[in-house]
Here is the input.
Amino acid sequence: MRLTRYLVLLWLIGVVVFLGSPRAAEPLPGAPMTIAAPLVRDGDAVFFVGNSFFGWQDRKLPDWVAALGRAVSPAIRIEVGSDIRFGNTPLAGFLTHPATQAALASRQYQVFVLQGEEFEPVDHKAAFHQAVRDFHRAITAAGGRTVLFMTWDFRWRPFLDELAASYEEIGRELDIPVIPAGLIYRDCGRAPPHGETPYWLTADADQPEGNLHQNEQGSAVNTYATFALLTGRNPAGRNFVVPGNTDDDALMRYFSDMAWARVRRRLP
Here is the structure.
């Protein structure tokens, strides 16, 4: 028990030191937009649009975010819906899906969270930005708010600066907030709790140095980052019960703190 507490203390000290360093706070071209007020309040509904990065191995980001909302105190009830299709469909393709069209027509969702295909924001930047514009127009007409979910880079293609810049550029153009998941992945790779590899949040049995999809730990980062930006609340390491989550409290506090360090810069 004493050893566990000691290790947790070392992690937290390392996080504090890292977050105060210039490297952790390195800027991207153009400052990210800030949010004037919480996007989601108790009882609101959020619709998620994306590919397997929102639901790999049945760890569904909408369900994880809702579970975290139930676990924090005071609780915040978040109703969730989704159009999650595994594969490489570009963002524009989702706009015509029946599930997305039904969600827009229902006018019941206060926020739509959009995730582009993993290479699209860089390899097909103009098409991606136009898809965001088209989605944003439809979401606004439906009485909702648009949020972008920034994905991450990969061991074989370290292009995070370009990826993040693309998300931030269209976010600033349309006054849309961006969940900085990819930046948090890099922060966790630079200051991991156990000396893991830089891409440990995508590591799996076949590719221990890092693969394409988020693993269980990456799913936790995605959840804390999304919840924090949507609600404006610090998750403060609160763990939660949901299928696929087996991380202990100490590790979840680390993920929560790393996510909050990035998201809080985008809040008032």
The radius of gyration is 17 Å. The beta strands are 45-50, 79-84, 111-114, 145-149, 178-179. The longest strand covers residues 45-50. Residues 37-186+215-266 form a domain with the Rossmann fold fold (CATH 3.40.50.1110).
